Amino acid sequence: MASLYVRLSRRNIVEQLPRIRCCHVSASPTHNYNSSPLNQSNKKLSNLIRSGRISEARTLFDSMKRRDTVTWNSMISGYVQRREIARARQLFDEMPRRDVVSWNLIVSGYFSCCGSRFVEEGRRLFELMPQRDCVSWNTVISGYAKNGRMDQALKLFNAMPEHNAVSYNAVITGFLLNGDVESAVGFFRTMPEHDSTSLCALISGLVRNGELDLAAGILRECGNGDDGKDDLVHAYNTLIAGYGQRGHVEEARRLFDGIPDDDDDGNEGKRRFRRNVVSWNSMMMCYVKAGDIVFARELFDRMVERDNCSWNTLISCYVQISNMEEASKLFREMPSPDVLSWNSIISGLAQKGDLNLAKDFFERMPHKNLISWNTIIAGYEKNEDYKGAIKLFSEMQLEGERPDKHTLSSVISVSTGLVDLYLGKQLHQLVTKTVLPDSPINNSLITMYSRCGAIVDACTVFNEIKLYKDVITWNAMIGGYASHGSAAEALELFKLMKRLKIHPTYITFISVLNACAHAGLVEEGWRQFKSMINDYGIEPRVEHFASLVDILGRQGQLQEAMDLINTMPFKPDKAVWGALLGACRVHNNVELALVAADALIRLEPESSAPYVLLYNMYANLGQWDDAESVRVLMEEKNVKKQAGYSWVD
DNA sequence: GTAGGGTTAG
Description:
CATH superfamily of the domain at 541-649: Tetratricopeptide repeat domain
Distance between the termini: 82 Å
Pfam family, one: PPR_1
GO molecular function: RNA binding
PPR repeats: 68-102, 133-167, 232-262, 276-310, 338-368, 369-403, 470-504
Strand content: under 5%
Organism: Glycine soja
Radius of gyration: 31 Å
Number of strands: 0
Number of helices: 39
Protein name: Pentatricopeptide repeat-containing protein, mitochondrial
Largest sheet: none
C-alpha cells in the first residue's frame, strides 16, 4: 500500500516499453543471451564501472567486438557518474541506436554538471527525446531542483503525465536545498500517500536545515512503525543520524531504543519494523561524533550482523582520536577491508605525520578511488611536503583520475606553501574550467593570491563570490590585506563584515590587530582588542598578545611591550618574542633585544633567526666586536644559517 | 544501463 506510487510508476514504464525498441532483445534470442559472450562482457563492464574503475572499463569497451545498447549505456553511465560529460556525449552521439535509457542518461549527465550552460543543453535534449518515461521527467525535475531552479522544477512536475514518489522526493529535496522548509513540508503534505523514501527525503533535509524538532514531530505523526508501512526504519535511521550530527546523543539513543530489536519477540516470519545494520551504524556514529568511543565500541561489540560500514565507522573513530594502533588492529581483523577502510588508515597515518607509511599503504591498495588520491595529497600538503604533493597530483592525472574541488583546494594550498604564483594561477584556471567553486576553494585561492603578493587577484576572487561568504572567506581577505600592510582596506572590510552581521572569530581579530600594527594604530588596536572581549565574548589568545606587542613595539613603545609580556596571562611564545625582537632592531634597543633573543634561542635552539637579527643590529650600530661574538657563539652552538636570513639585512 | 531516500573515508 505504501508503494502505491512506486507501483504506479512501474506501470507507467511497463506501458511505455513496447514502444521503445530495445536493441539487445530484438538482436538476439533471449534464451541464449544470458550466457552469451556479449552478456558476460556487459556484466564485467558494469562491475568495473560500479567499482569506479573507469579506465579499465573503457579498455574493455574498446576491445569488445560486439556491443549492444546496454554496452553503450553502461559506458555512458560510467562517464556520467564521474561528471565527464564531454566523453559521455561523444559516445551518445556515436552510438548506432539509442533507447530511452540512453537519453535519460545523457540528460541526467548534463543536469548533474555545474553551470547553467549544461542545464540548458540537458533541457534541450529532454525536449528532443523521441520517447519519455517517468524517469526522464524525474531526471529533469530533480536536475532543476538541485540547481536551485524550483520554478522550472514545479512547472515540469505539473506538466508530467503521472507522478510517483520519486517526483515528489525530488521537489521536496529541492525546497530543502534552498532552505525553504515551509514549502517542503507543505508539498510533502499534498502527497496522497507517504512512503519511507519521501519521509527520509524530508527528514534528512530538515536535519540539514537544523529543524530537528519538526523532523521528530513528522516522524511521530507518520506512524510509530507498526502499521504496515514499508521500511519505516529508514526514516528512523535518518533522524538518528541527524541527532548525531547535531550532537544530541541522548535523543538519538531514545529513538534507537524505540525500534524493536530482532530478539524482542519471536515473530520472525512477518516482515516488520525492526532495527537493521544501518540503525546500529548510525547510533554508533552518534557516539563517534560525540567522542564517546567507549559507547561506540560497546555497540560494535554487541552487533550480531556486521558489515563493512560498522568496521569502517569504528576504524574512522580511532583514526579521529589518533589511535592508529587500535585502528590498524581493526583493519587487520576485518574480513574484507574495502577502499574506505584503506582511505581511513591512510588518512590517520598522514595526520600523524607518518607520510612514508601512509604512502606505503597507498601504494599497496588494491583499488584507489578519487578520495584515496585526495587523502594522500592532503596529507602531503598538511605535512608541508609540497614537492611530494605535486608529484602525486601529476601521477593522479596520469592515471586518469580527474581532480575535484577537494583535490584542487589541497594543491592550491600547496602552491601557497611554495609561494608559487604561476602554479597557483594555473590551478585557478583549472578551477574555473572544471568545478563550481565552493567556500573552501575560494578561501584557498584568496590565501594563495595574498601570500604570493597578488592582493588584487585575491580581491577579485573575493568580489566574484556571488553567494554567501562564510567567516573563513572574510578572514582570508582581511588577513590578506593586513599582511600586505593595507590596513585601511582590512579595517574597512572588517567594518563591512560586522555590518552584514557575520560574527568574527579569534582569527579575524588576529588579522585586525595585525592591520593596526602595520598602520601604527596603537589606540585603535587596544580598542579592537577590548571590543573582541567585551562585544564578541572571544577569549584572547597568545596570538592576540603577540599582535599587541607588535603594535606597541613598532611605535617604539618597547618598555610598554615588555610590561605587557610580563603581565599577560600566557607564557610568551616565539611570535611574541619575535615581535619584540623585530621592534628592538628597528628602534635599536640592544638591551631588550638581548632579552628577546635569549628567550627565542631557548624556545628554538636550532633557529638562526635571532642570531642573525642580533648580528645585524650590532653591525648597524658599528659594534663589530659584539657582532663577531654573536657569529662565534652561533658557530659554537652549531646553528646553521638558514636560507632567507641575510647577514646584511 | 537511467530519476528520489538511511550509516562509513578526503
